[in-house]
Amino acid sequence: MDAQARVSSFVKEHDLDAPAAYRLLDAVSELGEVSKEVCTSTAYGADPSAVDVSDDELGDALFALFALCDVLEVDGEAALETSLAKYEERLVESGGAGSGE
Asked: Quick one: DSSP state of residue 45?
């Protein structure tokens, strides 16, 4: 079973269904917690080499993103493959992965 299916099953099993807007807010909140760990561990950027983020916080962020994908009926793995292909194309065309906007 892939990660998104595991999250979907967990959400259903524990009656944690929520609309997409709430799932998005949860994902943003979890990424905020990751950001907090980065800021704290690096003394707000003073020591970038000291970055430390717990697996637990990254796992929470992944859970939230997979739950969002599930409620939107988006295959997270397929979305990632699409993004990787897009970045690969940009690297070939422009030498950078950014959108250039």
From this structure: T
Torsion-angle region of residue 34: left (phi > 0), alpha (psi -120 to 50) or beta?
alpha
Is 11 contained in some domain? yes
Q: Is residue 23 part of a domain?
A: yes
Range of the domain at 58: 3-74
pTM: 0.89
Give the Cα separation of 77 and 69 in Å (integer): 10
Question: Consecutive 10-residue runs of the chain (101 residues): their mean pLDDT?
Answer: 95 98 99 98 97 98 98 98 96 87 63
Residue 85: inside a domain, yes or no?
Answer: no
Nearest residue to 7 (alpha-carbon basis) of 72, 69, 80: 69
